[in-house]
Amino acid sequence: MQVRSKRQPWSPEDKIALAKHYPDTDNATLAKIFRRSLSSIKNEAVNQELKKSASYMEKNKPGQFRAGQTSWNKGKRHPSTGRSRETQFRKGQRPHNWVPVGTERVTDGYLQRKVSDTGDARQDWRYLHHLAWEEVSGKPIPPGHAVAFIDGDESNIDPSNLELITREELMRRNSYHTNLPPEYAPIIQLRGVLTRKINKRTRDHEESNRRSP
Question: How far apart are the first and last CA of the chain?
């Protein structure tokens, strides 16, 4: 079972995808697509010197944080005062919300399972649809790819409902649902189903021809 490192590096494919979509996509959506924290998105944007587009900035309300803007207290230590030292966690002490390995939860609509107990949530919790895909495929999810739900139901983690797609394809699908009216969603989903069936029949036909004498 693959376990993410504490600081998951950005693959070249993800960097290219972020640079392409960062100017016109909000950071919360990017964080969900890339399965990263908002700070990770912001830090990589700063590293690549990415900026939001003028049209995107016009939609934002004045006074909110801008891309690349640093909080006034970033990197500053906060000394313990008063009785705060008495309530600090001691080494080996578990927080009140600790749960054992194997516990499942729902985060942003996706099912997760605790697979380790290092104290780092990004490492300890894995998405169930990732685990299901890796168990069937026998290999980890390759860089620059994501596991998507064929029927759009994020609770349906049956392997037959999962497909491996590139981050670029995931971006396109999310852009469809974000920018088009709701009534177009069923059409887009139907188009995806038909495309997958056509591709499968094509692959089956090619495989059959190769096996024929």
Answer: 40
pLDDT digits (tens, 9 = 90+) for 80-139: 555 555 556 566 677 778 899 999 998 888 899 999 998 888 889 999 999 999 999 999
Between CA 129 and CA 159 the distance in angstroms is 8
Residue boundaries of the structural domains of the chain? 9-56, 98-166, 180-213
Element (H, E) at 198: helix 185-211
Question: CA–CA separation, 192 vs 189, rounded Å?
Answer: 5
φ/ψ region of 3 (left if φ > 0, alpha if ψ in -120 to 50, else beta) reads beta
Structure tokens at 115: 């697979």
The amino acid at 18 = L
Report the Cα 75 to chain-centroid distance in Å: 26
Contact (CB, 8 A) for 173 and 148: yes
Confidence (pTM): 0.48
Instruction: Report the alpha-carbon distance of residue 166 to residue 14 in Å, rounded.
Output: 9
- How big is the CA angle at 71 (ends 79 and 34), to the nearest 5 degrees? 115
* Residue-wise pLDDT tens digits, 129-162: 999 999 999 999 999 999 998 887 888 899 998 9
